[in-house]
Amino acid sequence: MVGCQLEENLTRQEKGDFKFPLGVYPVEEMTPRQGYTLTFEPADGEDEHGEEWEEWPDRYVFDAVLSAERVPALCRQLFAMFPGRVYPILDVLGHDAHREIDPYIAYELVPIEVFTDAVRRFKDFFFEDGMCGFGAMSEAPFFYVFIDEHKIVTIRAEPTLKERIEKLLKAFDLEQVEEPAGADAASHEHRTVLAVPEDKPEMLGPEEIVEQLRDHWELVLNVDPEGNVDDEGNNLGTTPWRCVVRIGDLPKARYAEVLLYADCLRVAEESAFRAADRLAGKSGSGVEDAVIVASDRLTPEQMNGMLGKKKKLPQGPAASGTVRSCKWL
Fold first, then answer.
1. Whole-model pTM above 0.90?
2. Residue in 293, 290, 259, 266 with CA at minimum distance from that of residue 277
3. Domain residue spans in the chain?
4. Cβ atoms within 10 A of the Cβ of 307, count?
5. Radius of gyration of the chain from its Cα atoms, rounded to whole angstroms
6. Calpha distance 277→284 (Å, rounded)
C-alpha cells in the first residue's frame, strides 16, 4: 500500500511526560503545558462577494495542546463526529518565494472515508512532520477540526456540540487552562521527517503526498487567482514562476517543468498548460488530461539560476505570460 516512512535516527525531544512532534521542537528552554482554551466567536456576515458558504454560524473555539503520542487518538475521536461528507483542508510550508504557507482547500464535499483513509496511510506526515497542517470541516452540523504544523488541535463547533467536545477533552485528561504551551510557545524549529527509500517506491515523500492529496481530496490552492501579492498584501506585479504540469494518469504520468513570468496565478497556470501541451506535441485538447501539481513564484536570482548561464535574459521585466523554459523532468 502507498504510504510514507519516517527518517531513521530522528530524536524526539521530551520534557517530563510531554513529547514534542518529531518535526517541530523548541530550541530554547521551556515548560510545556497540556490543556485547552475556550472562546466564543459570533456568526460572520457575508463576504464582500456575498458568498453564503463563507458564512460561519456562532461557534465555540477550542485550542488544545497535548503530548504528541496522544494527538492521533484525539483526532480519531474528533473525526468520528463528522457527517458523511466533509471539506478537507491542507496547509504546507512550500517553496513559493513570497508566501510561507501553501493553503489548500476543497470546494467540493468528499466522503469522510476518503479523508480518514489518507490520514491513516500518511499518519507520520500528518502527525509528525513539521511542514504541514491538515483538517476538515462540515456545514451541517458546523464543525471544523484543524491540526496545525505545531500539532496543536483547533476545533470550531456550533453550540450544540460544545458539551460533547468538553467531555471528549476531559476523557483525554485535558483541562481548560489560561495558556497551554506547545512547541510554538518558544523559539522552535520545523523540519520534514520523511525518508524516500529508493528500494521502496510505494513510500512517498512530502511533495508526492501533497500531489496525491490534491487528487483524492479535490484540493485547490486557496489564493486569489487574479492577484499576485506577498504575505503582507504587497502587490508584486509580474514575477518569475516555476510550474510543474502532470500529463497523463499516475503512475505512468510525465511531468513538465515550465519557467515563466506572470502577474497572477491564472496566467501562470494557463501559460504552463499551453507550454506543456506544445512540449508533448499535442493539440490544444491535450491539456484536458493535464494537471498543475506545483505553482511557485521565484525570486529573479532563483529564476536565473534555474535557467542557467546558457540562457541570456532580456533587459527589463518580461511580459506576463512569457515562457522562458519548458522541459521534461
1. yes
2. 290
3. 5-190, 237-328
4. 15
5. 22
6. 7
